[in-house]
Amino acid sequence: MNIHLLRSPELKVETYRNVLHLLQQFRGPLNFIECEEEILQNGPNGEEIEWESKEDFEKLKKVRFFSEPQLCSIDDERLVNRIVFPHKEVLKTWEQLFAECDKYRNQKRISENDIVVLLTDIGNKPNWFGGISPSMKNYFVQTSNWQHYFGSSIDIRFPIAYEVIVWSMRYFMFSTNEAIMNNIHKTPKGCVMDFCQDKSQIILKMRTADVCDSCMNHFIERDVPKLYSRQFFEILEGIRGAMTFRGRSKLFHQPSRLEIKGYTKKIFFTDLGGLELRLNPKEKALFLLFLKYNDGISLNELQDYKEELKQLYANFCNQSNPATLQKAIDLLVNPLENDANIVLSRINKKIKEAVGETLLDFYCINGERGEKKLIKLERELVNHKS
Q1: Distance in angstroms (rounded) separating the CA atoms of residues 105 and 135
Q2: CA-based end-to-end distance of the chain
Q3: Euclidean distance between CA atoms 328 and 157, whole angstroms
Q4: CA angle, corner 224, sides to 220 and 226, nearest 5?
Q5: How far apart are CA 343 and CA 87, in angstroms?
Q6: Would the CA dihedral through 378, 379, 385, 386 be positive or negative?
Q7: Residues 348-360 pLDDT 10s
Q8: Is the separation of the CB atoms in 284 and 276 below 8 Å?
Q9: 343 and 332 Cβ atoms separated by less than 8 Å
Q10: In the prediction, which pLDDT does 23 show?
């Protein structure tokens, strides 16, 4: 079965790709398909509202599809200042969100057997974190405001991907919307069907990556193929493992393995859910050069590595004009220019955004002024795959 992940225009491309890549790592009958987002560019406008208080913002409203809310509220005073209230937010109705799914279906002639999931930063009128259409084939997951609930350290790929896979599981576990709600656990069990009186219980669900015995029976009763079930649980376990590693890395100061893949040398943090470090060609060439030389390189001596940098840059750059390519490398290695420092600063900023402050020191290119700069990561943690 194909699950088409649509990116609403306001959602950052990097966030969308990171969620997509996280889900695509797990092979099986569920295929997570990248959307062609230009179809969604002219979607319906939302309505701006103002949330007067934290309590109002975190309260879920009922919708006509169900008899009660299906997702989770929160009452955690430790997180009271995540969003300052009153807070304005643009909202759309469920009908508008599902209309965008149908628009994509119609224009791309998506099979009626496929699932379409809209990932959007836009809020929704009932103020839920995700929803399902009456047909059980269209879904949305709200991708914004996660830091309000979990704090700024949350890697938002995990809750977003978790919501996508849990909704997909529910499609297989139940035949109707009403059946989903009839089987919600109001008392938490550490199961994907927990009601969750506060959002912190979602963290528990994600870390347990479990389905209780009664809910497991729904897979059996509905005769869900084992290959689907296996893929569901592998994704849940993968999310749980990555979250656990990220949390423990703060305690043990433990770095993730680094994987360099293919001819284009894509860079992934293996133990952080396969998170990709996205660098432009010049940044990637410089990062890989420093990764190669354990003892570091002085920026004043960068010109000694000119040909090696040029070869790396040529592998990643689409520039067909040799003169333009040469000019870029000449600028980078010139000790009288500041280009190398600018590029290093951009690289380190992207690393920090990817792995956070705790793990930054392992991967950043750093050194005292006038001294050699190097990457501290132990090279046995680096794996090159062709």
Answers
A1: 13
A2: 29
A3: 34
A4: 95
A5: 37
A6: positive
A7: 999 998 898 889 9
A8: no
A9: yes
A10: 96
- The DSSP code sequence of 199-252 is THHHHHHHHHT---HHHHHHHHHTT--HHHHHHHHHHHHHHHHHHHHHHHHHHH
Give the C-alpha separation, 143 to 123, whole Å.
Answer: 9
Q: Is the four-CA dihedral 10, 12, 15, 21 of positive or negative sign?
A: positive
d(CA 113, CA 110): 8
pLDDT surpassing 70 at residue 197:
no
Q: Measured between alpha carbons, how far is residue 218 from residues 12, 54, 202, 222 in Å? A: 36, 37, 21, 6
Residues near 4 by beta carbon (within 8 Å), at least 6 away in sequence: 33, 35, 104, 110, 114, 115, 116, 117
- Give residues with Cβ within 8 angstroms of 160, minimum separation 6: 15, 19, 119, 141, 143, 146
Cα 130 from Cα 284, distance rounded (Å)? 36
The conformational region for residue 337 under phi > 0 = left, psi -120 to 50 = alpha, else beta, is: beta
pTM of the model: 0.80
Collapsing DSSP to helix, strand or coil, 319 comes out as: coil
18 contacts 160 by C-beta, under 8 angstroms? no
CA distance 242 to 349: 22
Q: Is the dihedral of CA 241, 243, 137, 178 positive or negative?
A: positive
The per-residue pLDDT for range 219-266, each reduced to its tens digit, is: 999 999 999 999 999 999 998 888 888 877 777 788 999 999 998 999
* Residues 63, 180 contacting (CB under 8 angstroms): no
Backbone angles phi, psi at 139, to 5 degrees: -140, 160
Distance CA 354, CA 337 (A): 28
DSSP string over 112-138: TTSEEEEEESSEETT--SEEE-TTSSE
Is 101 within 8 Å of 6 (Cβ atoms)? yes
Three-state SS at 355:
helix
**Within the chain, where are the H helices?**
13-24, 54-57, 94-108, 146-150, 157-173, 177-182, 200-208, 213-221, 226-252, 281-292, 306-316, 322-333, 339-355, 357-363
Instruction: Compute the half-sphere exposure of residue 123: CA atoms within 13 Å on the CB side of its CA.
Output: 21
Q: CB of 229 within 8 A of CB of 235? A: no
Q: Among candidates 44, 40, 164, which has minimal Cα distance to 103?
A: 40
| Gyration radius from the chain CA atoms | 23
